[in-house]
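Hi C.,

You asked whether I'd gotten around to modeling the 203-residue construct. I have! Everything is below, sequence then structure, no commentary in between.
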Amino acid sequence: MIRLEQDGGLWIVTIDRPDKANSLTPEMLEELARIAETAQEAQALILTGTGKVFSAGADLEAARAGLATSPLWERLSGAIARLPGLTVAALNGTLAGGAMGMALACDLRISVPTAKVFYPVMKLGFLPQPSDPGRLAALIGPARAKLILMAGQKITAQEAHAFGLIDRIVEPDALMATARELVADTCAADPQVARAIGALCVS
C-alpha cells in the first residue's frame, strides 16, 4: 500500500489505498517513516497518492485504537523535514487530518484544483502533532493556522494557494510531470551544492 520508485537520485513515494481514501494504518505509517529515514542520500523526494484523495489521515479503526495520537506521525514529518534534498508533496486530492504533517514538512506543495485541506483534530478531541501548528503558522500565519485548526474550516486548493500553503495548482494529468520538473534541476546539480543552497534557505 506504500510504493517506492527510485529513479537515480529521485525517490517517489506513493500512498496506494484509494478504496479507503488513502487512510493510513500503523504499518503504512511505519513504512513511510522508514523510507523517509533512509532517504538521506536522495537528491529529491516526491510524495503523492492514488485516486482522488492524497490521504484522509489515520484509518478510522486504527485511529480508535490509538493511531491518532501515535508518535509515528511526528517521526515521519521530522524525517521528511530533515532530508537534505528537495521534497515535494504532489497532492492528487484532499489532504486531511494527520496526513497534513508530512505535507507541511515538505519544501514544496503542489495540488490538483479539486483538493481540500482540513485538520479536524480539535473536533475529535485530540491535539495536532507537535510540529504541525508551527509549520502551518510559518507558512500561512497564526490567524489562518487557527482558521484551519480551531475554526475547523475546509480550505479549497485555491484558498490554500492564496494563503501560501500550496505553491502551485496543477491539472491532474500534469501533476507528476510538474513535480518531476520542479525537482529536475536539483537532481541534475552537484548534491553538495544543492544541499548547501537548501540549508541557506532555512530561516
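If it helps when you're writing up: The mean pLDDT is 94.

Thanks,
B.
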